[in-house]
Give the backbone structure.
Amino acid sequence: MRLRIVVPASLLAALAVTGGAGAVSAAPEHRAVLTINATPDPIFAGDGVLIYGQLNGAEPDGKTVVLHRQLGPGGIFATEGSTFTNAEGFYDFARDEGIVTTTRSWYVTSPGGLRSRTVHESVAALITLAASETESETNRPLTFSGAVYPNVHAGETVFLQEQTAVTGDGWSTIDQGVIDTSSSYAITRSFLSRGYSNCGRCSVGTSAIWRRPRTRLRS
């Protein structure tokens, strides 16, 4: 004998409403995302840089991507170029050698109000360094000179450093000078001890040159 279950009409109505609502609910919406990266980072002034990213969303092929660059520290952003995404939504902007000479900030936009984060590229200046003599007497002035590239550092301080260990990367600042309007500098210093002076590094901020003039000092 089969059992019969009587379901109240009010419960049937509630089930119908619940079922109907489930049947017409839309699938979760996946918002498109625009990414950006820059490599390598950091670089020395004039090195090449690749800016790239991806448009993650429905039908990403052939979408316009516009690159924006900040005009100086704290400045406004201006359009620097545009390109199109490929079938997978990827895009890139190549910056050849000699183009990126100072620190940069970029972001990209795409139709539909999409905007990426802002990516920052750290750029270190190039500094040359030479000694006026490779052999000299103690307590006799020696001049260490060079130039800074790019020519945007006039008035900034350049630091002369001496290696403080036979091996390793220990350096100590022993003097300083000022970069002139032609982007050059000269630092004059005398040494009291005989032997070798490893004054081989100059720096402007975080920029450094690794060429190491080695001067022999006679008593």
In short: The radius of gyration is 32 Å. Residues 9-24 form the longest helix (16 residues).
